[in-house]
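Weekly structure sync, notes
Attendees: PL (lead), two postdocs, one rotation student
Agenda item 3: pending single-chain targets
PL asked that the sequence for the first pending target be pasted directly into the notes so everyone works from the same version. It is reproduced below exactly as submitted, 293 residues in total.
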Amino acid sequence: MPGILFVVATPIGNLEDITLRALRVLGDVSVIAAEDTRRTAHLLARHAITTPTTSLHEHNESRKTPIILARLQRGENVALVSDAGTPAVSDPGAHLIRTAMAAGIRVEAVPGPSAILAALVASGLPLDQFTFLGFPPIRSSNRKRWFEQLAHVKGTVVFFESPHRISSTLTDLLAIAGDCEIAIGRELTKLHEELVTGPISHILSYFKTPKGEFTIVANIGLTTEIASGRATASRGNMSNDLFEAGKEPQGGPPDQFESRRRAVASLARAHGLTANQLYAAIELAKKSGERPT
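Predicted structure, written out during the meeting:
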C-alpha cells in the first residue's frame, strides 16, 4: 500500500498555534518535507518531535518531487509543511501535491493557522464572500493589470504584501480602486502584531518604516458607492457625530484607528446603515465642507 501525503498547516507566528492532530502527524510520518528545514527545526524542537526533515522549496521542488514520490509509493507517510501557514497557498508544495494525486497517492489536509482567515475575521469587513489574490506582481505591466482587475472584484478581497512594497501597493490601490475601506494585519499572531483599519487615505502614512509580513483586506464596494453617487446615508438627517466620526487621527498608535472604526460602526447601526455607506457619507460631507444639521 502506498503512503499518505499529509499537507500540514503550521503556525504563522505564535508556536502555540498548532493542532494536536498536526503534532501527532508530524511525529508519526517517516519524513517531513519542509520549505526551510531550519525554521521547521524550531517548531519540532519546541514539541520534542524527532522526525527527520528534507528540504522542499521553490528552487528544488521539481527535482525533489520524484524522490519524495518514490518514498510515498514504497508505503512511507510524508508530511509537507511550509515556513508558516498552509503549504501551496502562496508557498511551495502545489507541484508535489498534484504529482502525488496523479500517481494515485492519497493526499490528506491537516488544517490549522491561516493569515488569510485571521486577517479577515479581525477586519470587521463583510465576509459573506471574499477573494484571495496572493501577492501583487512585481513587474510594472503585470502589476497595473492586476490592480485594474482588482478594481472590478465585488466584495472583500485579501492579499499579501512585503514590507518594502506596502507603501507603493497602498498608493496603487488608492489610485485604482479609490479610497476603499481596508484592514492591514502586520506580523499576525507574533509579538509585535498590529491591525489597522479605515479608508486607505487614513492609513497610507501610518506605516512609515514598515517591517514584517503584511496581510491586506479591502472592501471595494465602498469605492463603488462613492464614485457612483449612490451613498444612501443622508447628511441632512445625520447628527454632528458624523463629523466627529470622520475626523482623521493625528498620528498616534493603532488604537486611534480602532476607536474611529468603532465609532463609525456604532453610528452606522444607529441609522440603519452599513459602515461602508456611512464612510461614503463622511467623504461626501467632507468634500462639501458643510456640517450636517
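Discussion points:
- The domain at 4-113 is CATH 3.40.1010.10 (Cobalt-precorrin-4 Transmethylase; domain 1).
- Residues 223-252 have pLDDT under 50 and may be disordered.
Action: rotation student to compare against the earlier draft before next sync.
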